[in-house]
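Hey, I was hoping to borrow your eyes for a little while. There's a protein on my desk that I can't quite get my head around. The fold is given in discrete form, as structure tokens running alongside the sequence. I'd be grateful if you could look everything over and explain what you see. Here's the protein in full, and shout if anything looks odd to you:
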Amino acid sequence: MTPTPRDDSPTRFTRREILRSTLGAGLLAAAPALAVRAAGAARSPIIAENRRPGTTEWQLSRARVDPVQTYRCPWIEGFCSRTSVRPGERIDLKLSTNPASSVTVDLYRLGYYGGMGGRHLTRLGPFDCRPQPEPPVGPGRVRECDWETTTSLVIPVDWVSGVYLGKLTEAREGLQSYVIFIVRDDRPCDFLFQCSDTTWSAYNRWPDFFSLYDDGTPPHNWYTGPGVSASWDRPYGKYRQILDAPLSQGSGEFLLWEFPLAFWMEQHGYDVSYISNVDAHADPRGLLRARAFLSVGHDEYWSVEMFANVQAAVAAGVNAAFLSGNAVDGVVPLRPSARGEPHRIISRVGKFGRQRRALSRYTGWTQHGPDSALLMGAHTTEPANGGADWTCVKPDHWIFEGTGMKHGDSIRGLVGWEHHGEPADIPGLEVLARGPVFSNGRPQNTEYTATIYPGPRGNHVFNAATIWWSDGLSAPPGYLRPTSHGNTPPGPDPRVQRMTRNLFDRFLRSPGGRTG
């Protein structure tokens, strides 16, 4: 959906952005560690992985954005040939520098690692790089980079599932950016963390105004109709919404909305495995290996196949938590690239559920999906954006155990910048929190509703109704707290942490899918 943009705000580079990277880690390290709660802890590779030495060197220290093209870093940029890859499989890195320069690639896995946030795995290069061509505009305004491969990597068999960053550093000026990919596995696990990379791609404006929200019509306002496409075969440009985050250049949206949950889960030893949206689309059986499926952050764009696969997993007994807002809203088929590589292009073709009133002027939709409330318990409302306090309305529910929250107690600013409301008529569904949504103090005339309902096999489906749920769990190194529509989330809050523990503990007591 369309938040208040900050597309044209000037990029500022200060040491303050870099120095604040240690703040979240210091605060969390001072708190006593919770007991390891994952039922699969004895066999999980996550605990052993996080005992390894960490570093904060995974962060960028010298970023730059082209002042004309606004979003790209032409001095050093790149992308990966796949969104996710298994150990033993190959992934290609395609890098470009303008002007030509030598480049090194430092690879890091993100996690807790004693509060450092990452572990250094290896250095690749140096490689002699040169400018690679800016691609022509294809059908649906798609930009596909047909770049030469700079280097290929076969993922070592001992690399643990997780989100991996390649920190690119060019030698001429020391400028940096990222590439990002997911290492997935196929083992039975407790939690399956789905990264929201279809949404990362949908909002990616690289090289300037070529996202699913740009139709080529000046002044580049927020177009939300059909007929546009986005490819993963291009770098991720500078993040385009609600905050200015040049030090995340090339990493999509993971560091902004998703990393705080991964950091917190790995800190407390939860048995977690990571996948891409593409994996949820292409590997329905893979969802059944988990006790719980997690949708995280800003998870707006799904294919109809993703919806069907997750719904089938819930029917088979897998728990689900939508720790997200504006999730399962836009329908995006996954199409092959011009070179025939599968699942490399998305195009917005419709909406999940009834067509929103604000979008009724678009007649070119070709496909709508089922009502996402039938999966999540609630769905995106119109307007979708705004902010609110997350207010308890069912304090006797087990999710509030140990929080001290009473009816009407609120967690200030936790709802934002997009939400879910209008709960579905599902047997046993309960509304846990609700309240009006505001934008800069003005009512939006809509209401968010956080919900939970029972699945058919002792499982549960929880909907947090906010993109910012993870903000209440942790503040990893480098994390920037957002502000939108006059609303700022609270940062780590013991009540959000306890509710999440209560929810995950309940998930662990159910059988889940447990295949594989």
Notes: The two ends are 36 Å apart (CA to CA). Confidence is low (pLDDT under 50) at residues 1-39.
